[in-house]
Design a protein that fits this description.
mainly alpha, 89% helix
């Protein structure tokens, strides 16, 4: 889980560096605004992933299919 967060942050930093270098300040601002929305989506999807993992584990542990 910590490695996921590290990779996401690294992706974000690299994305911003490339956009800032080649496209400009306006586009970098747009990416900065969208980053919060994307991060929210990723956090919610991770929560769903953990919930499904727990449910599947309980079913497998109970020998149900």
């Amino acid at each position: 889980m910590i490695s996921k967060l590290f990779v996401r942050q690294l992706y974000s930093v690299i994305d911003m560096a490339i956009i800032g270098r080649y496209l400009g300040a306006r586009e970098l601002g747009a990416v900065g605004n969208a980053a919060n929305i994307i991060m929210l989506f990723l956090v919610v999807s991770d929560g769903f992933e953990m919930a499904v993992d727990v449910m599947v584990s309980r079913l497998l542990g109970a020998s149900k299919k």
